[in-house]
Amino acid sequence: MFRSFLLCSCVSFSLFTASLQADEGHHHSLTSEELGTVHFATSCSPTVQVEFNRGVALLHSFWYEEAEKAFRKVAQEAPKCAIANWGIAMSSYHQLWNYPDKDTLTAGDKLLGKAEGMKATPREQEYIHALHAYFKGSAKNNVSQQDFLTRATEYSDAMKQVAANHADDQEAIVFYALSLLASDPPHDTTFSNRKKAASLLEDLLEKEPNHPGVAHYLIHAYDKPQLAELGLNAARKYAKIAPASPHALHMPSHIFARVGLWQDDINSNLASIAATRSSAAMHMGDVGHQFHAMDFLVYAYMQSGREAEVQRVIKESLALKGVDDHEHAYSAAKFPSLYALEMRHWDEAAALQPLTGDFRFANALIYFARAIGSARSSRTEAAHADMKEIDKLRLSLLADKKQEAADEVDRMEKEAAAWVALADGKGNEGVKSLRTVADEEDAEGPEQAGIPAREMLADMLLEMNRPQEALDEYLVSLKSNPGRFNGLYGAAQAAQKLGKEEDATKFYGELLKNCGNSNSSRPELHQAKLMLASK
After folding, report:
1. Directed axis angle between helix 252-259 and helix 212-221, to 10°?
2. Residue 433 · residue 445 · CB < 8 Å
């Protein structure tokens, strides 16, 4: 969601520990062992070089709040340091997370314009000009998603030239690689930008084994089912490079979730949540950053049969109300919806209540779960009513030019409509619709922490007593989404119906292995144990 070494020194700061007490007004620093090592040459006073490198290291782990503090400190101590203004502006450009609002664009435009008028080396001015390509023209009204992509592409093109002009500047290469990820075209099934970024970063990984950005951006580059195995090396390294960063502790789980390493996924996100809370207690970032880690944690717990832990995380997330309204709303909608659908508690899904307030995407998640729950419990009238609500939300997002969110709601609408079609006695229509969504999703690489459309298609075929077709689809889904609880169980069920006992035993065995730390009473696990006990 999610992108030079002349005359420089490494990052070096005082040690970050969990026992450190919160202290307002005290500037907490971190060692290179806690953030990783960067070398970014500047023409500024040597007295601010360490702090500048600190800011760059924080940028590379997306710790934007702390990065901005570091660069502002540099600007205060060295007012003539032009590149410090680049750092402050870069701290507001969250390349893989979200789009800056108009006020942020205006502030960045002004800041970079000021920097361009200051004395700096030609290389520093190239960095400043490149970033200004993103922030310029901020007076436009109604900035759209396409406008942001155009800005990101212009910035990437400029960073490509910076990297070409300074072949010995590894920071230029790393920032260029991130810009490629940030300018990745929507719905690109070739992964061209990702592969180009990965190629640049892989060349640097051995040369700069302690650089936080190299490992971090490799994980983002490989964050697709088709590429995920290639990211395991970086995933194993990143948390060790920057163990003080909550995001660095979380990011490996993007790869672990892709390849079905559920305990690694869980450990990664538990560590990230703990680090977020510790750093927030020291006024180093927002406690709300843990919502994203919780999302992955809930998903991993579901796949490993640990429903009690899911309920604990849901309770903790709800208690964070007031921290970040939109993240809280997303979690309040997503976690119970996913739980009900994954557990096949159709009545529970159908009874979910929409949130009050302008939380359209979150409410789309709720109506999506409601529609499927109603359809799968033969409440067709309610299911059709829920479908109308999903469509209203999609149209509203489109009207506000929120294209990405509208596209995702459109996908949800098609998936839910397929189950409503089955409930209406039009199963073949439902299969056709789900197959189209699954094909598109597989080509682009589905987002994590959700139910794959291909698995839904397999579920529908099994429901229609077409076990061979169902098994074929489960196998395709498990290739892209290995280790999913319902994918393994569905494949075992389909294999049993076909009399393929050896295949069924294999799937049940893998399911039980994944749930080795579980005290779950789910009937699926009971059936798996009975099956294996009979062998």
Report:
1. 30
2. no
- Amino acid residing at 385: A
Q: Kindly list the domain boundaries of the chain, sorted by start residue.
A: 32-242, 330-451, 453-535
Contacts for 313-321: CB closer than 8 Å, 24+ residues apart: 314/339, 317/291, 320/287, 320/288, 320/290, 320/291
The answer to whether domain 32-242 and domain 453-535 are alike in fold is yes
Distance (Å, rounded) from C-alpha 24 to C-alpha 378?
57
CATH code assigned to 32-242: 1.25.40
Q: From the first residue on, what is the mean pLDDT of each consecutive set of 10 residues in the chain (535 residues)?
A: 31 32 43 84 96 96 95 97 98 90 92 96 98 79 71 96 96 98 93 97 94 98 97 97 95 97 98 92 82 97 97 95 89 98 98 96 98 97 98 96 92 98 97 97 89 98 98 97 98 98 97 94 95 87
CA dist., res. 28 & res. 467, Å (int) = 59
Tokens of 199: 């190629």
Task: State the CATH architecture for 330-451.
Answer: Alpha Horseshoe (1.25)
Statement: the pTM of the whole predicted model exceeds 0.85: yes
